[in-house]
Amino acid sequence: MDEKIALIEAGGTKFIVGVGDASRRIHARTRIDTTRPEETIPAAIDWLRAQGGGYTAVGIASFGPLDLDPASATWGHITRTAKPHWSDADVAGPFARAFDCPVAIDTDVNGAALAEWTWGAGEGANSALYLTVGTGVGGGAVVGGRLIHGLSHPEMGHIRMPRHPDDAGFDGHCPFHGDCLEGLAAGPSIIARWGASLSDLPGGHPGHEIIAWYLAQAALSFQAILSPSRMIFGGGVMETQGLLDRVRARTAEAGAGYFVGDPAEVIVAPALGHDAGLLGALALALRLS
Asked: Mind listing the pLDDT tens digit for each residue in 85-137?
C-alpha cells in the first residue's frame, strides 16, 4: 500500500471512517454512530489503530460550524451547532494526538466540493460549487483551485430567501434563522410541512415545485456572487426523482437569460456517489503535502 491516510467523514448521524492512499483507493471503512464526542471520536481512533496505524496524515471532512483559523486556540473545534453535545467539541485534536501526524480538517461540504472539483463532476472546470440538500443544507466552493474561506467557512445553507407565494404560512425549520434556505428546503423542513420526505410525496404534490423554486433562487444567488462553472447539487433530498430537472427549469425561468451558462449544463449531479465524503477527507489530506 502507498502511504496510509486516515479518513473521517464526520456527520451528524454517523462517522464514516476509512483508510486510503494517494492513489484514491479506499482500503477499509466502517460506520460509527454519532452519539457524544467522548464516545464517537475514541471509537473512530480505536478502529483506525486496529487497521495497523502508521498514518502519514489524517483528513477530516466534518459537519460544522467549525473553527478553521490556524492561529485560533480552538482550531479544529465545532463551534455552535444544533447537534446536541457537540458545541465546542474538539474534532481534530484527538486524531493529531493519537497518530502524531498532520491533520487537515474542513467542512464536509468543502471536502465534497474539493473532491468533486478534483475527480468528479467539477473536474476540468475553473470553479465549482457543491451544495448538499439533505438533513441540512450546506455549500462549499473551489475557485482557481482553492477552497473559499474568509473569517470562517461559507454557510450557504443560511442565506435569506424570498418566500414562495404558496408557502407563506410556514415559519421555517432552522433553529437559528427560521426561514433561511436550510429552514425552507432541508429534509426536516419538508417533513415539518407535509409529513413525509419529498421523495415520498405524490408526483403532483405542490411540495415538489416549492422546493425546486427555493433551490433555484439559491442557484441564482450563487450564480450572481460567484458565477461558478459548475453547481453540483447533492444530498438526500436531491435524490428525489425529477428534482434536479425542476431546479434547472426554475433557474432558467428566474434568470431571464441574464446569466452566462445554460442551467442544464451548469447545474449537475455529483459524480462520486457515496464515496464523496471519504474522498473529500482524502482531498483535504492530500493538500497537506
From this structure: 999 999 999 999 999 999 999 999 999 999 999 999 999 999 999 999 998 99
Q: How would you class 57 by CB atoms within 10 Å of its CB: exposed for 0-12, middle for 13-18, buried for 19 or more?
A: buried
Domains of the chain are 4-108+274-286 (3.30.420.40), 121-271 (3.30.420.40)
- Total residues belonging to the chain: 289
Side-chain half-sphere CA neighbours of 2 within 13 A: 13
Question: Cβ(51)–Cβ(102) under 8 Å?
Answer: no
Tens digit of each residue's pLDDT (9 = 90 or more) over 184-214: 999 999 999 999 999 999 999 999 999 999 9
- β-strand partners of 5: 20, 57
Residue appearing with cell numbers 411540495: 207
What secondary structure letter does DSSP report for 239? Answer: G
Verdict on whether the full-model pTM lies above 0.85: yes
C-alpha cell read off for 279: 474522498
| Pairwise CA distance, residues 3 & 21, whole Å | 6
